[in-house]
Recover the amino acids of this structure.
């Protein structure tokens, strides 16, 4: 099984998957400030305001730090919060140590969609939306519609299959078309 993080890294650059899963070279995330700051914020959040419910969005209950896995979806992951909403639906909430810049990147939408799939399968409840809390924008909460359109779903699952294709075939994929991404890549010293 892969994680939504694997999918996000694949979307950033397919070579991430090759270096991590085929060559087993760790990312050394501990050297990246944002990653470590984000993890620290997650740990603090787990002990602070545990009873806090986001009533403005109709949250009536929540579970925190929930691990879900699905053999059918071939995805596993730890969801920061799973919200139960007043309309009976459920929603994933993910915290990001990032600023909100009036745009939800494709990677975050796909991550939300994968979490929604895991929640729907586990709880057998409707998931119509997810939420992302941007910690570096004063905890701005942004709603991400979960599109139930089959084409969108197939797009997310096509990306999941792309990740598995690299792992199973052990092939060296093309890098991202954006050279800007290479500047912040943990594998930039070994990628040719």
């Amino acid at each position: 099984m892969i994680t939504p993080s694997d999918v996000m890294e694949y979307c950033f650059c397919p070579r991430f998957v090759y270096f991590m899963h085929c060559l087993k070279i760790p990312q050394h995330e501990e050297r990246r400030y944002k990653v470590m700051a984000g993890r620290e914020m997650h740990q603090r959040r787990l002990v602070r305001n545990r009873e806090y419910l986001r009533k403005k969005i109709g949250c009536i209950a929540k579970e925190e730090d929930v691990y879900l896995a699905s053999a059918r979806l071939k995805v596993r992951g730890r969801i920061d919060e799973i919200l139960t909403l007043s309309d009976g639906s459920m929603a994933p909430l993910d915290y990001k140590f990032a600023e909100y810049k009036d745009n939800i990147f494709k990677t975050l939408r796909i991550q939300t969609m994968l979490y929604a799939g895991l929640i729907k399968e586990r709880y057998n409840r409707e998931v119509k939306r997810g939420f992302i809390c941007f910690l570096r924008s004063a905890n701005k909460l942004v709603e991400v519609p979960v599109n139930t359109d089959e084409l969108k779903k197939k797009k997310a699952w096509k990306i999941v299959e792309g990740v598995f294709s690299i792992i199973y075939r052990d092939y060296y994929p093309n890098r991202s078309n954006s050279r800007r991404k290479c500047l912040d890549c943990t594998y930039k010293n070994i990628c040719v």
User: Anything to note?
Assistant: The helical segments are 4-12, 15-22, 33-47, 106-123, 150-169, 179-183. Residues 37 and 99 are 13 Å apart (CA to CA). The longest helix spans residues 150-169. DSSP finds six helices and five strands in the chain.
